[in-house]
Design brief:
The protein is α/β, with parallel strands linked by helices and 258 residues long. The chain is built from 10 helices and 9 strands.
Length: 258
C-alpha cells in the first residue's frame, strides 16, 4: 500500500514569532481543503495564544503556493459551494482582521489562492526569484479568498484589473515596483528576512496593531459574502467544468461562456 502524500502546515516557534509552512510537495503546496483546515486551526490557536505576537507564512521546497488544488475542486451544488467558501473565508478573516500581524515569505511561485494568502498578509517579503500570477480565470473561476478586496488595496484598482484579467506571470522586481511586494531580498533569504520583520512587529505594542488591522479590514465581510455567492456560481458553470478538465488534461481550455 502506498503512503498518503505529505500534506501539512508545519509550525515553528521562536520567541513571539510563529512560522507556518505550507508543505504539500506533491502539488507544490497547493491549498487543498485539508491544508486550508490545518492553516485555519493554526491561525485560530495563535489568535488565542498571548505568547504569539506575530506570524510568518511561507511554503516548503522553494515554492510559496501553486494555487488551489484543482484535483479536489468538485463542487456539485450551491450549498456545497457556499460551505466551501465559508470555511476558507475563516482564514482570510483571521489574517486580515485578526489581532496578529502576518508576514508572507515568498520564494518561487505564488499563484492563485497562494497570491490571495500573500495579499491577506500585512507585509510581503519576496526573493528576487519569486513569481506572481492570478490564474483563476484559466479554470473558469473568479479571484477569491478575499483577493478582489486585498489586491486593489495594495496596488490600486487599475493595476488590479491587469493582474486579475490577464493572468500573466509577474517577476519580483515588477511586483515590488507596483507595491505588490513590500521587501525584495536575494534568492533563498525570504524566510529569514520575513522572520526578522516579524520579530520587529512582535516587539511593538500589540493593541495598536490589532486595532489598526481591524480598522483597515472594514468592508472585508461584505466583500467575502458577495464572493461566496458569486464564486459558487462559477463553481457550477460549464466554463469551470471545462477549465478543470483542461487543467487536469494539461491542455488549453475552450470556454463557451456558460
Amino acid at each position: 500500500m502506498s503512503e498518503a502524500p505529505t500534506m501539512r502546515v508545519a509550525q515553528e516557534r521562536a520567541g513571539g514569532v510563529l512560522t507556518l509552512t505550507l508543505d504539500y510537495p506533491a502539488r507544490r503546496n497547493a491549498l487543498s481543503v485539508p491544508l486550508r483546515e490545518q492553516l485555519f486551526e493554526a491561525l485560530e490557536a495563535a489568535q488565542g495564544d498571548a505568547a504569539v505576537r506575530a506570524v510568518v507564512i511561507t511554503g516548503a521546497g522553494g515554492t510559496f503556493c501553486s494555487g488551489g488544488d484543482i484535483s479536489g475542486m468538485d463542487v456539485r451544488d450551491a450549498e456545497q459551494g457556499r460551505e466551501r467558501m465559508r470555511r476558507t473565508h475563516r482564514i482570510i478573516r483571521l489574517m486580515v482582521g485578526g489581532r496578529l500581524p502576518i508576514v508572507a515569505a515568498v520564494e518561487g511561485w505564488c499563484v492563485g489562492a497562494g497570491l490571495s494568502v500573500a495579499c491577506a498578509s500585512d507585509t510581503i517579503v519576496a526573493s528576487a526569484e519569486a513569481r506572481f500570477m492570478a490564474g483563476f480565470n484559466k479554470v473558469g473561476l473568479m479571484a477569491d479568498l478575499g483577493l478582489p478586496f486585498t489586491l486593489p488595496a495594495r496596488i490600486g484598482v487599475a493595476r488590479a484589473r491587469q493582474v486579475l484579467f490577464y493572468a500573466e506571470p509577474m517577476g519580483a522586481e515588477a511586483a515590488e515596483r507596483i507595491g505588490l511586494v513590500d521587501r525584495l531580498v536575494p534568492k533563498g533569504t525570504a524566510l529569514a528576512a520575513a522572520q526578522l520583520v516579524a520579530q520587529g512587529l512582535a516587539a511593538q505594542a500589540a493593541l495598536p496593531i490589532a486595532l489598526t488591522k481591524r480598522m483597515l479590514a472594514e468592508g472585508l465581510d461584505a466583500a467575502l459574502e458577495r464572493e461566496r455567492d458569486w464564486q459558487t456560481m462559477c463553481f457550477l458553470s460549464a466554463d469551470h467544468a471545462e477549465g478543470r478538465e483542461a487543467f487536469m488534461a494539461k491542455r488549453e481550455p475552450v470556454f463557451g461562456g456558460g
